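One chain is below:
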Amino acid sequence: MAYDPIQSTKWCRFDRYRIEKGAIRPAKGALVTIYDPWEIFESVKGERRTVNSLWGEFVELARRVKEASVEPSHFGSYLPSRDGAVLIRDWSNKYGLLGLLPSTAVEIVLPATWELSGKGGHPTPTAICMQQQTQSVSMGEDLSGRLRIRNWARWCQSLSGRPVSGRHAAWADHEWRVDEDNALLRQFFWHQPRNGQFPMPMSREFWDTYREPLHMWARAADVFLRSVEIVCQHVANALTAANSFGQVEVNMALWRLNALASSGAYRYEFGPRSIKRDLSCASLLSAMAGMFLADLQAGRRALRCGTCNKVFVSKERRAAYCSKTCLNTARTRRYRQKKKVGREL
């Protein structure tokens, strides 16, 4: 059975990406591969201490990109530096793009075009008509329990039934939605299609032309990092009756992660022995939000290393360092500080 990216739980990535005109896109001649992000999550599910989770690796990347960025700002848009762009490219070579467009777009209305069409469904073209494409996300279409992106084509024939000599007359008769030439959509595609007819998200044509602007990538990563840390600190503070954030800020952080995670949809299929359940992958960013919330339920949290400031994931409540090296470094520093104070006394 051929791979269907719209229905599958797997994610699409190319083996090589490049930075071009302020955006990251597949390199020329790069090969596409398919993998399941949730397999990475399942591989460390039973471990208690520090784990190398996909979402944990991403938030650590977001921290490094922001620290190496040009004019970083809190929840603001900033431009990654050259070193930050290299970090983004290397991470994308391993996992692919985030899927910013499919993870946030609910409905895309493309500009109307003028096409030949048969009157009353007649196969022979008889008149020039307006056609407008609408791409929208739907859940559980046809009772399949799958996430689908539907591509609707709406036709409107000229009132006279004859070819339209001027576009303005028919346009005045039918008030169709115009999307200002889809200026936002153009940022996500390195190849600009004719008449603004962008490909349907998650299709093969979509992946061949899709890119992600670096400033949008960086902003999404920063929001994800900040939201994860706010939620994790709130959970930790609930155990100690301390409050570092206001309730509104905590609720907003959780809402952002919920909005991403809810982009997926469960589906059930026959497995080798019984019914199996898979989660449709709306985007890599959405999948990582779902993984984080699942780990949070299991007791795992994102923590900052007390030595190197690296973000790491652990189930241990008292974990304070990302590795034994950082633990030993901290012990050495405390020992030297203690000796220094003793000499001064």
About this structure: Residues 19-97+213-318 form one domain.
